[in-house]
Amino acid sequence: MSLNKSMHPRNRYKDKPPDFAYLASKYPQFQQHVNTNMTGRAVVNFKEPEAVRALTCTLLKEDFGLTIEIPLERLIPTVPLRLNYIHWVEDLIDGQKQPRRGIDIGTGASCIYPLLGATMNGWYFLATEVDDICFDYATRNVEQNRLSDLVKVVKVPQKTLLMDALKEETEIVYDFCMCNPPFFANQLEAKGVNSRNARRPPPSSVNTGGVTEIMAEGGELEFVKRIIHDSLQLKKRLRWYSCMLGKKCSLAPLKEELRKQGVPKVTHTEFCQGRTMRWALAWSFYDDVTVPSPPSKKRKLEKVRKPLSFTLPEVALKELQVKARALGCTGRHPADAITSLLEKTLTELRVLHKGVPCQEGERSLHLTAVENTWLHGRQKRREQTRHLRELPRAPQGAAAATCAPPPRQDKQEEPSQESAAERVGESAAADTLATGGAGKEKVAGVEKRCASETGVPEDAAGELPLKEEHFLFKCLLNVLQEDSAAVVEMHWLQGDNKDLMNQLCTFLRNSLLRSVAKS
Question: Which of 63, 189, 426, 501, CA to CA, is 20 to 30 A from 249?
Answer without folding.
Answer: 501
